[in-house]
Amino acid sequence: MSSIKIVLKDVLEQRGKTRYWLAKETGIHFKTIDSYYKNKIKRYEADSILKMCIALECQVGDLIKIDR
Predict the structure, then answer these.
(1) What is the pTM assigned to this prediction?
(2) pLDDT tens figures, 16-66
(3) Which residues contact 46 (CB under 8 A, 6 or more apart)?
(4) N or C: which end of the chain has fewer CB within 10 A?
(5) 3-state secondary structure of 5
(6) How many CB atoms are closer than 10 A to CB 1?
(7) How far is CA 22 from the centre of its chain?
């Protein structure tokens, strides 16, 4: 069965950034960033994903993958 996987951890590591940096840069609570980072988020917020993409200068497809 396929599922959606958030790969924020990989993107942050590639860019040498931390969850703390992303939280400060986007204004998103650290706990929320941490949930995305650990792929434990249950509800994807378009606004949060947009802010992360802008801060990380990436596309939505860089953060969200289909896990087959």
Answers:
(1) 0.91
(2) 999 999 999 999 999 999 999 999 998 999 999 999 999 999 999 999 999
(3) none
(4) N
(5) strand
(6) 4
(7) 9
